Structures
1.
Amino acid sequence: MRDGKAGAGGSAGRLTRRGLLAGLAGVAASPVAGHALGSIVSGPSVISSPPRTWGAEETPVNLPDPDVLALDPSFGLVNYGNAPLRKLWQGAGWLEGPAWCTVGRFLLLSDTITGCQYRYDPEDGPQGHVSLYRRESFNANGNTFDAEGRLVTCEHGMRRVIRWEHDGSVTVLADRYRGRTLNSPNDVVAAPDGSIWFTDPAYGDGVVEGHADVDGPANPQRHLNPYLDAELTSQYGGLRRQEDHTFRVDAKTGKVEAVLGQKDVAGPNGLCFSPDGSRLYVASSGVGPGAQPPLPDHAIHVFDLKQGRPTNGRLFTDFTLAGRAMRPDGLRTDVEGNLWCGAWGPLGLCGVFIYNPHGQMIGRIRLPVGCSNLTFGGPKRNVLYMCCGTALFSLITATQGAGRS
């Protein structure tokens, strides 16, 4: 779930992930913006009043938390006013794919830049503890656990979706479609019928979060060499981009089916189901390498599910706030049917947006950086975990996550 996540209007709204990181570096050079971005580490934040600090030495904030904003009375049903936002950990390259392991009672995280996967144990100390889970995950992104508790992971580097079996072996669920290799599987969810759904934009078809194409629109000048330091991925992973798709892997037959094409949702990123399984939500995020029209519209789309397939696609929200075009990312629903969405855009607007099932924004969470992905976890599934670039944040809620991570 991710990509070029900076939200903005016009051409700036089409930044790639690489452009976002470069943009942040440039913004941080200014005294004012640098002060705000540095707040993730130690300095005060310019978002709240009075300014707040983040991390182990954070100053207690007045409650309800000033950065958890109710925009409609219905938000009070899912918001727990006695809990503050917390920054739990920082130190990753780009955090993604949070998935709660019910059996192990830990949160699994992917670092798409370093290729590591991490395990966050909330019960180890007051801040919890992060440890290395897998040193090499081939630039893994999205994760989920299926009905049998098996881990399903999207790998940018190998351009495939895999499942870890209980005996430690690996099953490849999807690595090609109609004879062509995939782009860079991004986000993944388990459907109520047991099928696995994932999005396949081209955000990892570059040297930072995977490996470059050998040629074609994603590497038109052939300046990028996909074979450098990538013996395994270039041997087994794809080397040519295809159009964006959202795929379904059948639980019984293993058939890989494109249920949505680029004309339905371009730049597909986060996806999730409604609690009753009657709806599918898909975020249209940034432009991946080599993208051709139609391009992403930076909105969230919703589809009705009939016989396990999406129909009647329509706009759920244009994802604007205060007149600014924001960028949606990872998605999750709660048991009330509300949609919790990671949001990228200007400081003070970015964070998490919460919509009711009718598409009305009922609340939002301001964070000192945008949110790439999120999930509900904890023994009661009422803790919202938010991956925000290099850092992990949390918020105790009064609701529970719907379905599996």
Note: Residues 1-42 have pLDDT under 50 and may be disordered.
2.
Amino acid sequence: MAGEKIFAGSRIRDLRNRNGQSQQGLATALGLSASYLNQIENDQRPLTPGILLKLCTMFGVEPTWFSDSGDVQRMQVLREILGDPLFSTMPYPRQLQEAVRGAPWLCDQFVTLYRAFRALREERGPGGAATPAPQPGTGSYDSVGDWVQAERNYFDEIDRAAEGLYETARLDEGGPAEMLGRYLRDRHDIRIVTDAGLDREGVMWRFDRRARRLSLTGGAPPESSAFWLAQVIGRLDYGQVLARPVRRSGLGSADARALATVGMSNYFAGALLLPYERFRRAARQTRHDLDLLQRQFGVSFEQVCHRLSTMQRPGAEGIPFYFIKTDIAGNVLKSYSATRFSRARFGGLCAQWNVFECFSAPGKLHVQMSRTTDEAVYISVARTVGHSPVSYFDRPRLVAIVLGCAVSHAPELVYSAGLDLTDDRMVIPIGPGCRACIRTDCRHRAIPATGFGIDAGSEERGVVPYHMVAP
């Protein structure tokens, strides 16, 4: 973080409130005036190295807790939006930076407005024929994702509740599905049955409260069954705990709050199967070997990867990972990042990303070092997940998972074995999608970037039939 200007007002305020400290009390502890700290908390002044060190010592967090990754991600989203042909020019990076730091709320509202505009444009179709207004589902889905991202994909109260249940119920004494099934039978007198018909309906589990019967779809692997049982336990025993973050979220629509509640149920299930401190220690001991962690905890590849992206407990942070789940068409199904990394939010993903290699070799793990357009270098692993077809007429869903982090953490990953981290030829340049990507020398470009001129040339012809000219 050396050399960066760090504006971290909201993070400081969050830590102060968690510890029940007043602004005056924290200012006194830091040796500052209350007005100076107030300016820092309102992002009118950056953190100095001395104050950053004091905050890290006082609250027991790493310096990366205060990084301005949110600003970097906002800037990329704005660049993508302004890459739409609707806009004729692209602002300079400094102008975007000033907008993000000076008016983050206004930038967020602009993103929301553009999202609604795209939804309406897509519903009207190429001809522009009038149709009913777009339904709120997509916007709600995106707003929940933005909220989870703003919380760094970590929910402390839920995480600690799940961890406490794991220890008190001694869930480590047998297989996860077996132990969770026994817990539901002993505590709630719930009978667990298998119903092969659920799969034809596209349903994984169904709970009949009156009959005290939980039906699970047939043929599911044990790790999936364990996750579903953990979801039900969260809803039955920790409903209020799951509801509190949603109430504080500020999500405006009922759809968004309902989706957020489902998300908190999923978060609880992952935290119960992979209790924070046990999992953090195991991850460090195995150098984050995903296959070893799968076997040790009896969970799936996706569950391990997703859990690693949530390890942001203050004072006990894991490696800040980003996690992305995508289908073969490039649709992003889930995306969380504890780093500066930000994937394309509008339009297609970069063709050079290792996620697309996965679908040509299902089940194989792909390791890649990549450099984004802000010159940050990452190491990532990607692999497809999905079940084998049960019949000729079955069409199983095949998706890919990507887990990555800054290359500075590569020595802590088993996947850096054999890689020459100093060889720049090993680093693949990737971007946020062609319209927003500023690279002028990419052989994989599909369309020109907005804001650049085009030189079609007359005496030569390259792989891409034009040169992009910087404004």
Note: Residues 104-124 form the longest helix (21 residues).
3.
Amino acid sequence: MNTLPLSGLKVLDLSRLLPGPYATLVLADLGATVDRVEDPAGGDPLRQMPPLSDSGESALFYGLNRNKRSLTLDLKSPAGRDAFLRLVRGYDVLVESFRPGVMERLGLGWDALHALHPRLVYCAISGYGQTGPDRLQAGHDLNYVARAGVLGYGGQTEGAPAFPGVQMGDIGGGSLFALVGVLAALHERERTGQGRFVDVSMTDGALAFLHMHLAARLFLGDQAPPLRRGTDILNGGFAGYGLYRTSDGRYLSVGALEPKFFAGVCEVLGRPELLADGYSPGEAGARVKAELTRLFSEHPLAYWMERFSGQDVCVEPVLEGDEVLADAQLRARGLFARSVDTPRGRTVTHLLTPLRLGDTPLRPPPSLGQHSRDILQEAGLSLEEIEKLGIQVMPGIE
């Protein structure tokens, strides 16, 4: 039998929306048991967020919550809080994404839970972290990458910052650093027997995307100017590393960073002399970039892909929309997996998480509170105690 590496690990997920649920999706895909604790009054707000299926189910929630179970508890009520304290003893990891101080006000913060369950790894994901003057401030992904300087580093020189198409702060700064922190704490627990509090700031995590550039700037000090968008070698300042529009309105990504690759690009273009000034600053380099812009704009994307076919020079098309689903490399990597969702009576294509260390399970997401009774019984609550909690299971998926 193929056993996934996190089989036997139990995770209690109190998080909502994207950062925490994506982190726990990775854990679930790697074999962990992930049980979501949701508010009885609607659950994770992502459940109501469009786009919605014909049955009114959020496609965003579906995509983030396979291989998980759901229970509902009112953590503001004494009975719900007491049930949670009994429940948490059976878990290895807790993940939450409330603003700092919320769990403490409920009597369920790190100090209380560590005293009750010293082996628990407690991961708190928040916008600005548990400390600092802005720790209680509201924010979303766009705010975090803005504060981290990542947003300001992309875009045209003297132009507006480039609006990010994806949630770098949520997933890159939040989910992935939460996973690193949780797995590091679990490794430490093997040695010490003690859990740890993992404080994940999505703004701190977003800053990591700027690490190479900002760390170099700090090392050089007054010898180097401040970072600016559109001027450095990796953010559009050099002809061999950039985006170029084709005659049909499509784009090519040219990542010919090293001279051997840029020389190859110039050869395909029939302009080998462009290599001489390709890495020059100022007007000389700008002239090379302008010439590449002109040349690529003369023909459609398909023409250029044929010209560059078989040339190992770091030129790729910018895929748009559903084109990514047909990409031969991504399909060969098995990133899109089909399964039958029996409760919903349909076949679904899943986007798998990047690490596959065995056969990824593809159990459909739970309805709100679907597994409440099972999970609470596993925690030792009697049927009578569960009934007193007023647990309700949403109809539709059993």
Note: The first helix runs from residue 19 to 29.
4.
Amino acid sequence: MSVPSLLRRRALSLLTAVVTAAGLATVPSTASADVPTLVVVRDLLLRDNIHVTSSHDEDSPASWLNEILLSGTKGGLTARSYLKFDMSYLPEGVIRAATLRLTGLGAPACGPAVGEGVQVRRVTEPWSGDFLHWGNKPDSTDEDAQIATKGVTTQCAVYPDQVEWPITDIVNAWAGGADNHGLVLQSPDESTDDGLWAFSSWGNPAGAIPVLTVTMDVPSAPYTRASSIASHEDGADTWVAGLTPRIQSQVVDAAGGSLTAEFEVEHDPAAPGQGSGQIWTATSAPASSFGRPSVLVPAGLLEDGWRIRWRVRAHNVTAGTVSGWSAWNSGTVAADVPQISARQVVPSWESEGSTVSMSLTPELRATVTHPLLDSTRVVFQMAYDPDAPLQGTGLIWEKTVLDVPSGGQAVVTVPDGLVDGGLQVRWRVGAYGGPFQSGWSDWQKLTLDM
């Protein structure tokens, strides 16, 4: 069976800075002299790890549930540990260094050099942790193999401790086209009785999973995607919500760095009678790669009914690079939003600028009209009157009415037992439809009396 999804999620949570951009190549290439590069450090995703010993056979195969990885020879027992990392998430660039790092849990002795140590080799055949035993273990090559001799035991001053292997050449071989069947940890000479090393696996409760860190020079190539503006789609028409809409876009660069989004808004050439050329441009605050910076169009620039269009491009401030402009998007500015009118309290009458109801459970009513949509969502709020602070403060009650037809009346009833007689409150209404909202109406005072 494969590694459970729970362990996979746990492994993912412990890795840092994993690249998730799709379609990025792993083949190293020398960057053009005129393309700035940034240093990128990635921890590769661990896909599988398991140890197999000479005692494992078809009837008793190795188990990926072990919390440790064993390597070496002792008392006639030989052990190897297999690990597989995912290279597909690396961006295109030049690999400068790669280091395999494991947490040592035990060794024949302490110190920086213990016996022959443990050798890391490149595996040359496919394998699976689902059914692995000594008889079907994959072959490997000693080409570019590396040995670490650091020893750790429970009696050492530092426990647990990290053991590292520089495997830059192995990772470059994978990036250059060699099949990535993973790595094997084994004794450099399995004919000797040099002892066993134990390392933490991804099943260890301590969470000290094996890590392969790759350092690269990655050419900066910023781009934007998923650009959007507050709007409503009505068939083939796009209505931009209000005179001060917010525009945002995702900015991405495999090289990392600090990125900004530059936005431009101009008159749509399809409506030449409304004006021409640029209306406004702005650059967002910096964000990291895959961030979603945004800007707000200032008041006083757009007019109701204007046809406008907008686009965006990404800047990598760290590398000094810039993307091309995105395609234009266009829409019609709709300053009109849901309109609230005919607010009423039933039953009630007006007295000295305040509404008085002889019921503790009156109806609150409002008529809502939307210029673009057939229906809206209407929200009623009731709060304590700040002019009568001794009675209470803050919100008392809120009620939402769904699917109110445009031009129709929304009605709610104050719940029985909510308030006492003589209470001074205030109430207001807000209406929402698509990305458009009316904003809250003014507060209206109300005295609830018997």
Note: The first helix runs from residue 5 to 14.
